[in-house]
Description:
By secondary structure, the protein is mostly helical. It is 54% helix and 6% strand.
Amino acid sequence: xxxxxxxxxxRERYDAICAANDTATRRHIVNDYISTELREIYDNxxxxxxxxxxxTTDLVELCHIAWTSxxxxxxREGGVPxxxxxxxxxxxxxxxxxxxxxxVVTRVGKRKDTTSITDRYANLILNLHIINPIALDLWFLExxxxxxxxxxx
Length: 153
């Protein structure tokens, strides 16, 4: 399923999440969506001016999900270190990287009363029908204006 999910469009992924009968399958598809989107950001330093407006903790959590998926392995170097991957994504999203991303991941893992970002994204997709929840935390600079605009739905 993992290889099939990587080839899905956002709409196909949305349909798969809505059709999934169990939480584990939904989480798997959402985590794959996160990995695919962050890999796209990581690989593309010419996105224009896209700025992360969400919390640092959310971005670290997203980066960690993508990093643990294995989609940031590089055969020549044996893999991209988590802190380097996080720093590159922050650079491409014009935001400051966390001073200690490993510490943030540890804190996130110890949370008991907070819903994981995977579950929050699944809820946004299922209940509010938002196909691309990561875009909610991004601002795009329109070329014709000097102000940031939220992406059009």
